[in-house]
Amino acid sequence: MSLRVLAVDDSRTIRDMLKLALTQAGFVPSLAEDGLHGLEVLGEMAPDAIITDINMPRMDGFGFIEAVRRLDGHRATPILVLTTESAPEMKARARSAGATGWIVKPFDPVKLVRALNMVAGPGGAQ
Amino acid sequence: MTTPDPMAEIRASFFVECEELMEALQDGLTMLDGGDADDETVNICFRAVHSMKGGAGAFGLDDLVRFSHRYETVLDEVRAGRLEPGHDVVLLFMRAADILSDIVHYSRDGLPVDPDKVEPTLRELEALISDEAEEEEAEVTDFQPMTLALPFGGPPADRVVRIRFAPEPDLFTSGNEPVHLLRALAALGEMQITPDLSEVPTLDALDPEAACLAWEIVLTTNRDRAEIEETFEFVEGLCKLSICEEQSGLSLPCLPGLPPLAMPPAPDAGVSPSAEVRPRLTLTAPPDCSDPEEGTPPPDTAKTHAPQPAPATPIAVESPVATAARPATTPPKATVRVDLDRIERLVNLVGELVINQAMLSQSVAQAGLPTNSPVVQGLEDFMQLTRDIQDSVMMIRAQPVKSLFQRLARIVRDTSAAVGKPVRFVTRGEATEVDKTVIERLADPLTHMIRNAVDHGLERPEARLAAGKPSEGCITLSAAHRSGRVVIEVMDDGGGIDRPRVQAIAEERGLIDPGQAMTDAEIDALLFMPGFSTVKQVSNLSGRGVGMDVVRKSIQDLGGRVSISSSPGKGTCFSISLPLTLAVLDGMVVDVAGEALVVPIGAIAETMAYREQDIRSVGPRTRVLHIRDSFVPLLDLGVELGFRPAKESNAGSVVLLVANEGETLGALIVDAIHEQRQVVIKGLQQGYGNAPGIAAATILGDGQVALILDPVDMMAKAGTRPGQTQPALAPTG
Amino acid sequence: MTDVAATAVEATERELLSFRVGGQEYCVDIMSVREIRGWTRPTPVPGSPHWVRGVINLRGTVLPIVDLARRLGISAEDASDRNVIIVVHLGQQTVGLLVDAVSDILSIAENDMRPPPDIASREGETFIKALTVVEERMLRVLELASLLPDTGREAA
User: Fold this and answer.
1) What pLDDT is stored for residue B227 in this prediction?
2) What is the domain range of residue B360?
3) Do chains A and C touch, with touching meaning 3 or more CB–CB pairs less than 8 Å apart?
4) Rounded distance, CA B674 to CA B669, Å?
5) How confident is the model at residue B40 (pLDDT cuts 50, 70, 90)?
6) Any idea where the CheW-like domain is (chain B) (predicted)?
7) B166 with B258, same domain?
8) Are residues B244 and B359 in the same domain?
9) Fewest beta carbons less than 10 Å away: which of A57, B13, B26, B148?
10) Same structural domain for residues B99 and B169?
11) Sign of torsion, CA B665 B668 B673 B674?
């Protein structure tokens, strides 16, 4: 069983890299370019986990997570935040917004997969 | 591996993205400087730099990461309202953007970055937020992947780690799931796990969203403690956790009275081979609350409880960062990225189509079909379609000149700083679209012209003040479409061309005879003469000894023309007129000594029959045409091109009046005019002919190659060629 | 002008296309030959060297035509429809060589190729890379690079 992962990031490069890392690890990625787009995509699929950037146009990562948590079906969907800062405040901030965990950019694909496994289970397996 | 490296592709695409981000950043900074910026403008700038940093980190581009991180930190201060983006600050941001752009290019090409170029600006940036705390923070949160590794001597041997893990309710609302955590933990070694059910209440007292389970875990592993802790990183503070290491490799007894449970191994993990019993954890761990997904509470319970576990802190909503649901001001248009090669191929194919269509038209015409026949009618529709397709394809290659103008803005800043003349740079018509190739080939000549304008065009600030002008000079760069061509103007509000000095220099260099009477336009045109340069020493700014003659040459190679207008004390304007595309041309097909030639329509002011009485001989082989009270040089094209000797009489020929920017330059004699039509421009290989005024060719309807004439260039060069007999009144511009 | 792939397979054999120009036999490495075309009237290009006949349309490309007889300094009568154009490719350049007629395709061992005698008594001989004898006929192997103008190669 392959886990579906929604990855939200405004940078094409990061989206490409997430897609590559997720696909290689056996996940099924869906991509969105910002928070609003992420919510739209969420209306069409039910991901097993969500990865989101913080700094994005239109709706940023915090706004997105809060909006996701208000959706009935996604109160407990694991959400990982992509952050360039490892400062404790950033993590506290992410958690208070409803994030499950975080990945520090630049992300290591191995750690990305491990973090996903920690929150969503071993769905990347073939 | 024969497949292309996907990372290399992403890397290439990252640098493309960087160019887009640089453009967004520069736009944002320009808006900031103009004062019509809102919070989102700052956000856009911040995000642009931030995204570059993110991507750069992924490719280990340390210089780029470092610079963008510092830059971003300062932008963040503006975003948070702690730093006022005044004029000077924005100017610094613009310089920083220039350096960032350099670093991007160096990084792309794998070149080292010169710290001397970067450090001063970095220091200036940091000086903006010089509060001790900020600087310290910049160091502390310096962008590095987090390392949790604790010092352990040597590779750790297998040992036993005892872990007690008791989730708190918040753990579940954060979306964490103990099952997955424990499974991830099991991947680290051999694990025995025992649920602690002591806190589980009876069913009637059970709160489905409360946490009442705990686990005792005995992990035999050779992994270090950091890795174990990392597993619980996301739930730190959301559970009670204790991790104790034991020296011996012995497995310890579990809680009395409960059988040890083996973790269900992850399907792919291949660990825990010792697991003899493989129950699903959800089956053995009694209350459903451990798994909110699978053990969904009754719907009505979920509703009543829904508000309670909702996001822990609503503060985030009020944060200035949370721009949740902000309406998009300009929704981006859907675009497709296409390999340029594919477009080139399409352009070439359409060129072939145009030629083929012309051949077909010719065959149909020769077949002598009546004009109302279906074939002729159908062909007309076909011609219209071909033309529409051609226009559409050319539009694909059209690009706004904006990116070029932004690059030039930087040239203005650099030059302004180097010569110590403050400059206000104004651009107009950035959205004007021009063929991509034209834009690329305009960069060098325009760079040179802009440098010239700052370096030579503008006066020094003191002189400006003395002349009653603002000390800050103004350079205006504009682009506009004008009657099927693009006109680009570089304008300065400087002192204008010092014509007596220009004339003196030209005399000094032997370019003109001393004391020669010249009009203003003729003097201005001297600037374009090879060997003319008003700079006393070769300045490092005005560019490697390149003169305006080279600028004019590169513009002409693009099928364009440059002209100057200048008024003393008010400034100078260089105007470049270019074809919209390099690929097609509206031309007049003429016959010269049996050869077909194409003359661009744009260069022909008028056509007339050859009349002997309008011609005056000025020398043995030099003639001028008398037209409307003036005399213009007259050339026989057949002779000029070496197709035939001069005729006794040109009676019956046709005369084309050649004009540039409204000024009649001369007249050309051709034998006959065939037709006007659009032609596809084909390059000529170098080394097989070097006639003045001929730089390209086309293929006509009969399949023959016809040369394309540049009559303006031909008139300009006719007087300068040795052995040619041109009157001295041939204009040089 | 040695083709790497070909020499790798047949270390010592070279395939050459031979043709006649002004009564003499010449040849070029077949790897540089793209196609052979019948005579088409070229459009003259003003200011070109005397050995450039002009340009023709080769399926949408403007192809310069080098009159080999003039280039090699052999006097020859004007070209007619009995002439043939050999389209050759060198680096980034594609050029048509105007010759009298194409003769043959030959396999010549590298060992059988002799360097030309070191006398530049005639203009044409500086264009010759090697000499070889086939069935008692002397063949001159042309150095294409020396035939074509320099600028074109650099401009690409």
Assistant:
1) 76
2) 341-389
3) no
4) 14
5) confident
6) 584-720
7) yes
8) no
9) B148
10) no
11) negative
Both tokens of B511, joined, read 């370019």
Neighbours of chain B (3+ CB pairs under 8 A): A, C
Taking domain A4-120, whether its CATH number is 3.40.190.10 is answered by: no
Q: What residue segments make up the domains of chain C, in order of their start?
A: 4-146
The predicted-structure confidence for B189-236, as pLDDT tens digits, reads as follows 788 888 777 777 776 776 666 667 788 888 887 777 777 777 777 777
Q: How far is C41 from chain B (nearest CA, A)?
A: 8
Cβ distance of C52 and B688 shorter than 8 Å: yes
Residue B108, domain CATH: 1.20.120.160
Q: Indicate whether B484 belongs to any domain.
A: yes
DSSP letter for each residue of B427-440: EE-TT-EEEHHHHH
Chain A residues with CB under 8 Å of B59 CB are 106
* A124: closest chain B residue by CA: B268
C4-146, what's its fold? OB fold (Dihydrolipoamide Acetyltransferase, E2P) (2.40.50)
Partner residue facing B180 (CB), from A10, A79, A119: A119
pLDDT in tens, C26-79: 999 998 999 999 888 899 988 888 888 899 988 778 899 999 988 888 866 666
Tokens matching residue B488: 């680009």
Q: Does A123 touch chain B (CB under 8 A)?
A: no
> Residue B272: which pLDDT band, with cuts at 50, 70 and 90?
very low
Instruction: Report the relative pairing of strands B485-492 and B473-482 from DSSP bridges.
Output: antiparallel
Tell me what the mean pLDDT of segment B373-380 comes to. 86
pLDDT attached to residue B251: 42
Q: What are phi and psi of B190, to 5 degrees?
A: -95, 130
**Residues 42 to 101 of A: which have CB under 8 A from any B CB?**
53-60, 62-67, 69-70, 72, 75-79, 82, 84-87, 93, 95-101
How many domains are contained in chain B? Answer: 5
Instruction: Provide the ipTM.
Output: 0.81
Q: Tell me the C-alpha to C-alpha distance, in Å, between residue C114 and each of A2, B585, C6, C110.
A: 69, 52, 20, 9
